[in-house]
Fold each of these.
Amino acid sequence: MIPYGCQDITEEDIAAVVDVLRSDFITQGPVVGRFESALAGRCDAGHGVAVSNGTAGLHLALLALGVGPGDLVWTSSITFVASANAARYCGAAVDFVDIDPGTANLCPDRLAEKLERAERDGSLPKVVVPVHFAGQSSAMDRISELSGRYGFRILEDASHALGGAYRGAPVGSCRWSDATVHSFHPVKIITTGEGGMVTTNDEELAWRLSTLRTHGITRDSARMTGASHGPWYYQQLELGYNYRLTDLQSALGLSQLGRLDEFAARRSALAARYDEALAGFPLRPLARDRNATSGWHLYVVRLDLSAIGCNRREVFDRLRAAGVGVNVHYIPVHLQPDYVRLGFSPGQFPEAERYYEECLSLPLFPGLSDEQFAAVVEAVRLAVQ
């Protein structure tokens, strides 16, 4: 079975982890800071705060932005459930914005319409979470303009998009947002096994993120209430979490980060080959925003089911039977049973639902061989003819 995604681990990656195993610190040591600085530098951001996974990054970033009970967070329904769940961890309510039918990203036109209604109703969001789906940035300049008009904060979910860019700025630079969350799961652009990072240009926000990830504890005497008792002393300033990343994981991330350009170039080349090889098939890839350079986490196609004469499940089963590990990204979050119990229902976000009926993710990862690529294309041809 050719997987839809797969990590690429070298002997250099292994050696970097072994070096940490032989050092004095395997967690809460110096490698975490080096990884934070390196990734923040790569993203052209002022600060990076490493966390245990992307979901933890979303949770802490929303907390650091002041989200709590009584607040409202909006995001896209075409995303993994973590984007919405993180707001609920904070005690906030969640709502969704329908997608652009071309890119499958949060649609800025639908966002503008929803904000206008919300202003009249007195129900504006505190934070909007655009998801850079499949690796392509959302229309951040337009979302930022709306933020200035309506007063919401912006948290980018860039779990798919490391290595991408928008209007010449690296994804994660936070040029149009308060903070950006990255994920390092094995199928993502680089991996730490599990892991994530929040980038931001806000020094106070970065400090609060770093405190919240370690139980809300500080050893900075300038931040304490009252005098320190001595070098051993620490204070818990608020209720935090154990969301730390280890030095072992950070060493792997640092090593992988050194290959980011290689990974990005390979993914982009494979995407271009898919574009050419699949031309004329009864399907279409996601639309490309001319202002964005994708990180290419996923290569997603939308099937022309009327031309194929069957539903997506039949195409999916044919490809899996042929040894091609296609996948579906994603089931609209608002259709999940847990969200239906909150009051969401089919028909609320029609573009997201229409997208879900037609989408398939084809294998895309740096190690995809020419033979595997040819096998995927041939299997797709047979499955949709």
Amino acid sequence: MDDLSRALGASKKTLYQFVTDKADLVNRTMENHLALEQNQIAEAVKDAPNAIEELLSIARHVTSHLKGINPAIVSDIQRYYPSAWQLFTDHKMNFVFNIFLNNLKRGVAEGLYRDDINPDILAKIYIARMDLIIDQRLFPFSKYDFVSVYQETLNYHLHGIASAKGQAYLEKKKTSQ
């Protein structure tokens, strides 16, 4: 809080008029961040012409976001700020789940995703996969970066759900780049 008050050019007394303590500041920051994320994702997907483009648009957003995350911050929030981490967990279980559930249903309806998938289960697998990306036991930060792990898991996911039509679309997209 000392560093923050110095950076803001305000006294700690002034800072404490707005937040009760460091945990409150972290919670409010997380709430603000998640609201911003939701708006940015909604904006990224609103004009997508199909489910694959929607998913790729989300992936571009997530990739740009992951590049700026210091892995130590993730660990610190998990360890020292459980209520802020719970906000993130709730965000995944509600907002992210629904985004991917709707994307899967859209993809099936468009014939781009296989019609034999279970969207509810796959959306939950996607949520669980988010936890794997930041699991230091599986992907130590010293050896793997968030972006590489995310891109590999997204590619795995997309090719696993794509129908023949979706695979053809992906191939066409790949060769046109």
Amino acid sequence: MNAVTPASPIDYTQGQDGMAPGDRARARVRSRLEFRAGDGPLIAIEPDYALELERAEQSMVVSWQEDGQPMNAAIPLVEFNEFIDTGKVVIEV
């Protein structure tokens, strides 16, 4: 009989957001955000946009509406933490 080892807990990076993987929240952009999604083009989100957040292990999945179109991107947590630290993004309670 083969022994089954229990699954190890998922490693995730603790962020300034105070969220755990799978948690959801709303946030607001306070100043223009610019980031590059993977190898793609530079993405900008303008001030006062409402964001929907979903925490992943190493990133924050961000969704918003732009010109009536749904948009989303996964932002590495290190970069998202910087947006929080600088006040560019404020998580709404």
Amino acid sequence: MSIEQKGVIDIVSIDVKGNAVLTISDHLPWDVENEHLLLLQDKINSYLGAIETGEFYDAYPNGKNRNIIIRIVAFESPNKDGFHFLERAKGILTSAGYGFEFVQKSFSDISGEL
């Protein structure tokens, strides 16, 4: 799963606090044309759509009655437009009652976990 598969929730987990965490796996570089940013926006909107229609809860019933966090795990550092987008997304999601996290990992972080 990845950011490029808009209609798919990449990873669902329950964190130590009992929150349902919906993770977006983002391997793409941030480009000056902001095509990456638009893919990310579509992916977030797809997650919200699945939550709001109940499709998420049908597929993951353990997510019911939990706070929801949308987490982006990226391998590339955002550019200026990316940082601005992430701040706006955080504000919008927070005001709608969702949590939001952005985590940047390197490929060496992942290979060290294998």
